[in-house]
Amino acid sequence: MSQVIHHDEHYDAEGSKIGMWLFIFTELLLFGGLFIIYSVYRFSNQDAFHLAAEELNRTVGTINTIILLVSSMTIAMSTSALQKKQKKTTLALLGVTLLLGLVFLVNKYFEWGTKFEHGIFPGSQYMLDHLSQGEILFFGLYFVMTGLHALHIIVGMVVIGFAYAGVRSGRVNADRAALLENSGLYWHLVDLIWIFLFPLFYLIH
Amino acid sequence: MQASSHIPHDVSYLDYKGKHKGLLAWILSTDHKRIALLYMFSMMTLFLVGVLLGLAMKLELIAPGKTIMGAQDYNAVFTVHGVIMIFMIVVPGLPAVFGNFLLPIMIGAKDVAFPKLNLFSWYVYIAGAILVIISVLFGDGSPDTGWTFYAPYSFKTGTNMLPAIFGAFVLGFSSILTGLNFIVTIHRLRAPGMSWTKMPLFPWTIYGTAWIQLLATPVVGITLVLVSLERIFGIGVFDPALGGDPILYQHLFWIYSHPAVYIMILPAMGAISEVIPTFSQKHIFGYKAIVASTLAIAFVGYFVWGHHMFTSGMSGTAQYTFSILTFLVAIPSAIKVFNWISTMYKGSISLETPFYWAASFIFVFMIGGLSGLVLGALATDVYVHDTAFVVAHFHFIVFGGVGFAFFAAIHYWFPKMFGRMYDTTWANVGWIVFFIGFLALYSPMFYLGLQGMPRRYYDYLEQFHAANILSTLGSWVMTFGLAIVLINLFRSAKSGPIAGANPWNGKTLEWTVPSPPPVENFEEIPVYGEKDGPYEY
Amino acid sequence: MQHEKTHIVPYRTYLIILVALLIFTLLSVKITAIELGGLTVAAALIFASLKSYLVLTYFMHLKFDKIYIRIMVGFVFAVFLAVIIITFLDYYFR
């Protein structure tokens, strides 16, 4: 950059933390919009939503919840490890987090795949012929919300990947931990959203 | 760490020679002042496009029947006019231009908290603008839904909606990033000693606005994404044929778009709150009341969206709740007007151009605000809903409010931004012509709306002819005034007389640095003492 | 700027929180399997709220951060809740 202004290099951990929190707020309201839609349609199509939720596999949902919770713990621990100057542990914990994120996505892939095989996907003729309007809405929201969530998992993994590279090269260290802390915050946001998605889609019977 | 030492303090941000030359020195600069000017020039260009579209509409309405365009073209013109003016001009307008330029200086900082993110926001803004332009120029016809993109028409119409919707989404993203940057800047970079209660009012309104940008924009973001998905995949969320509820679209759209009005108007009020004490040479009356009313407007304004939907078939409970909340917003707005007037009382007023713009702002803002109450009351709203009355109301607020404040702000801070003074005679002439044109253009629409002329039609009954002619003439006068103002400013930026650091005897921090400000604003970060304050005359 | 001391959270705390989260998850799966009518939603949401409280407080460090971040988070959730309630003023009474 031409304008090398000194606070370009000025490091303000708290400032970037607030920045990250503010970004998390916008993400929360992004999903918030979807939750509003969900609650309105669930309110007006209660029976259809119950019927449609039977189609979803509780076990897979529960396993994915556990995976995300564990990964949330590992990334939280990685910050502690970095502050304790245990670089290897930090990297190992981040690696585990990334791996768990990947497993989550693979599960999701198979889950979606099964739905597609059964003819359940947005705009499918099968849905129009066999399902009620409430069920179509349920699956429309299911695909949008879990899809957007999966997108956030991918983004989170990319961000964690940057943090991983930073820790490895030493750019991210105990004194300049903001990148790691913020990618952790982002990952917890992804977890937080799943904590609500899971009961709302899988646990209505 | 201290890489700054090689930038001499006596070089202004305009003259500074960095690593890049020419245009690159601007579009790669992370200096908040250069980014502000980037925004200003891109907005000015888009604004002129919007003005031309507006003129075309008024010309069409000079006589009943088809004058220069048919129904479909008229639909496209008012849609593109709305999208450009709302999403690209008035929403980002004051925060992106004056917020960027002045917020760091007014709070005693060298730049915003995240300078690179700031430049990135501008690129995002440009990307959004390009997407909207693509939707107009390519595909099967320009968008024709109105700027509100109401479902189900927005995913049924055959026109080129996707780029326009995605463009609005991208513009929203730019606005979120700007808001985020400003909040962190205000929290972290205020000068030592500048407590929250010593912060000038313009930064305060930027702060309130930034919160709305942050919390409201994502809701419309996801809504627009859903409309796109509806168009591409048919997910059914807003499609009544699949069980969806189009009214829910309206809820979600206005959850953003009503607060968006406050995104526009709050910084406008902030600019006015700076201009009035300076030209009255008097401490602002009721500083704390203005701050509180700013936050109250931002907060309550978030919960009034339903007043756009009184005729949509909402439940009665929702209708009167929204109506009550709407009337509540009028209170903090009135407090502000009261404070501005009280500031002038017994002040030593100097009648300079910014003061004229500010005073006319209060005038048109009051007409716009009071006509808003007609729309916020259930019974009268049913009568004037979707008529020209609504168009008159929001142009008084959005154009009268934001536009007049923008011109007040530019005439106020122009000597600071460019280091030169404009020709005050021509500036005043431009103002009065613009003001007269404005009133002639929009006031007849109140009458037309009450008489029952609907909005968004290219045609009308013969009985509305006379008032429409007046309105069209007004549009010409106003544009003429606008041309005088802009030409005067452009000429003066190049060749006006050199202005000093503090031509208006202002007391806020931006007047303590040279005009135009040096690259890093302050040689030494100012320190606020016990007795210092932004309005101590 | 003053040097801000960072609080290092011990691994054990995180482990305890994870166990609590897993217990809540399993409980919510079990309890929603029982037919409770309208209470099922309430139960599921209460468990989700408890879990998110734990994630926010410990994993996201709100407990150890400055108070104003906690206020902001609370404010945002309150705003969202208010928006849902107001939306339901329409749908519930229609």
From TrEMBL, chain A:
Natural source organism: Mangrovibacterium marinum
Keywords: Membrane, Transmembrane, Transmembrane helix
Example GO molecular function: cytochrome-c oxidase activity
Cellular location(s): Cell membrane; Membrane
Heme-copper oxidase subunit III family profile domain residues: 1-205
PANTHER family to which the protein is assigned, alphabetical: CYTOCHROME C OXIDASE SUBUNIT III (PTHR11403), NITRIC OXIDE REDUCTASE SUBUNIT E (PTHR11403:SF6)
Gene Ontology CC annotations of this record: plasma membrane
Protein name: Cytochrome c oxidase subunit 3
Stored Gene3D superfamilies: Cytochrome c oxidase, subunit III, four-helix bundle
Similarity field: Belongs to the cytochrome c oxidase subunit 3 family.
Membrane topology: Multi-pass membrane protein
Principal localisation: membrane
Alphabetical GO biological process terms: aerobic electron transport chain
Entry-linked CDD domains: NorE_like
Residues annotated as transmembrane: 21-41, 61-79, 91-110, 136-164, 185-204
Automatic annotation (TrEMBL), chain B:
Cellular component aspect of the GO annotation: membrane
Record's bilayer topology term: Multi-pass membrane protein
Ranges in a coiled coil: none
PROSITE patterns per the UniProt record, alphabetical: COX1 (PS50855), COX1_CUB (PS00077)
Signal peptide: none
All residue ranges annotated as the Cytochrome oxidase subunit I profile domain in the record: 20-529
Major subcellular site: membrane
Residues passing through the membrane, by range: 36-57, 77-107, 119-141, 161-184, 204-227, 247-272, 284-305, 317-335, 355-379, 391-414, 426-449, 469-490
GO biological process, one term: electron transport coupled proton transport
Similarity comment: family membership: Belongs to the heme-copper respiratory oxidase family.
Descriptive protein name: Cytochrome c oxidase subunit 1
Lineage, top ranks: Bacteria, Pseudomonadati, Bacteroidota, Bacteroidia, Marinilabiliales
UniProtKB/TrEMBL annotation, chain C:
Topology in membrane: Multi-pass membrane protein
Annotated GO CC locations: plasma membrane
The keyword RNA-binding is annotated on this UniProt entry: no
Top-level taxonomic group: Bacteria
Pfam family membership, one: COX4_pro
Transmembrane residue ranges: 12-33, 39-59, 71-93
Localization per Swiss-Prot or TrEMBL: Cell membrane
Protein name: Cytochrome c oxidase subunit 4
